[in-house]
Amino acid sequence: MNDVEYTFLRRQWFPVARSEDLTSEAPLAARLLDSDLVLFRTGGVATVAGAYCPHCGMNLSMGAMVNGELECPYHGWRFGGDGKCAGIPSLPPGSSAGTSRLDLLPCRALYGHVWSALERPEAGPPAVPELDEPGGWHIRDGTPHDLPCGIRQLTEN
């Protein structure tokens, strides 16, 4: 893939998880265009962020959801759905968590999937009115899996 294609694709919406697989109980790992992501749900709202903790770089998908916040498995830093650091266990009670935050990505729940883009999208997510019509199309999902192919093979097949 050349640089122009890669730059273009970073600004497009892609489904990164099935909505049913993303619960408020645990974070979920995803990968989009060679970028690792973490997905989590808090207050019923899906959030997509870069996978690594801004503190020491631990993969947050290996963490846990604690009281509606994403907790890093390494030092226990916690992050809310707005990406802000909500707590650092090593600080005294009542201390500010500072300005650390997750790198949030655009996120939409649509057609039974969580969609995201790696950069500010050029346009809104795809509109498929047939999915909203009674008796219209239905999406059928199989088991999610990674495909060892390029974007051209994926879109052609």
Helix and strand layout, with pairings?
Layout: H1 3-9, E1 14-18, E2 28-32, E3 35-42, E4 45-50, E5 64-66, E6 69-71, E7 78-79, E8 85-87, E9 104-105, E10 107-110, E11 113-116, H2 151-156
Antiparallel strand pairs: 1-11, 2-3, 3-4, 4-9, 5-6, 6-7, 7-8, 10-11
Please provide a written account of the structure:
- The strands form 3 sheets. A 4-stranded antiparallel sheet has the order 2-3-4-9, with no helix packed on it. It has a 4-stranded antiparallel sheet with strand order 5-6-7-8, with no helix packed on it. Strands 1-11-10 form a 3-stranded antiparallel sheet, with no helix packed on it.
- The radius of gyration is 17 Å and the shape is globular.
- Helix content is 8%, strand content 29%.
- It starts with a helix and ends with a helix.
- It has 157 residues and is mainly beta.
- The mean pLDDT is 90.
